[in-house]
Amino acid sequence: MSSSSDENNVLDILEKVSKSVVNISTIKLVHHIFYQVVPVKGMGSGTIIDPKGYILTNNHVVGGAEKISVTLWNGEILKGKLVGSCTVHDIAVVKVDREGLPAAELGDSDKLRFGQKVYAIGNPFGLAGGPAITSGVISALNRTIESETEMLENLVQTDAAINPGNSGGPLVDLEGKVMAINTAIIPFAQGIGFAIPINSAKKCASEIITNGISARPWLGIIGLSLTEEIARYYNLPVDHGVLVTRIIDGSPADNAGIAAGDIILRIDGAKIYSIEDLVENLHRRKVGETIRIVAVSDGEEQLFEATLSKMP
Question: Of 11, 122, 149, 164, which one's alpha carbon is 20 to 30 angstroms from that of 295?
């Protein structure tokens, strides 16, 4: 098969999946400096994940919106309603009153590889001609990034251009499968794009559609996965676990006495080797549940008890 026919196949696939990408326009009411409430317009993209009208987007695109408008690839405008959100992954689900929509095929983000070719699709303006596409490769996996308002974990990093208008659109592979949902919440990301793995987004969307707004348990730490190299460089007593780099004031971790510099080793007896282990463990918990955390603190293993609260 020639390279031109290969390219045409990819272009046909991208044309098909782009019909699942919508423009999302919002109006949010904010308090002016003189205590007046003024409407502020915003925009982003969304990905149709169900023919019944369910659309995946970023929480920061639609969070707090008084009005949501969804523009389809053909220019048709529909009224959108927020079903629920999952702030820990910057994911939200919007519903439109329409069936038979072209839904994107969702892939398996656990199969993503370094250097893999991907395309970021967005519909930032709802213009005639439909969505816009940028291309790039997967440059890193499992990134943990702290934005101005929250911390996003287990992100996919790509050099495909992701601007604010592309936020909420899909990052697709050569087969047109959605591997991640683009997010432009990171203010310093010049030439670096980040996206939420579709497996995390699927889990959030399923909970939102089934239960409404997703209430995640929250510990309130920011940390990094400990490796042998980091342990050796800082002369740490252990070579696995989560090194706590920051504690949020008033959080369950803060109330339990955990401090920056502590190394979390186990939660209720389960070994914690990485930040991913920690996040996965917490996601299996419920708000109000008390967990027993073993951590190295001041050079010794200590036991901490933390009662998980709702993600603020």
Answer: 149
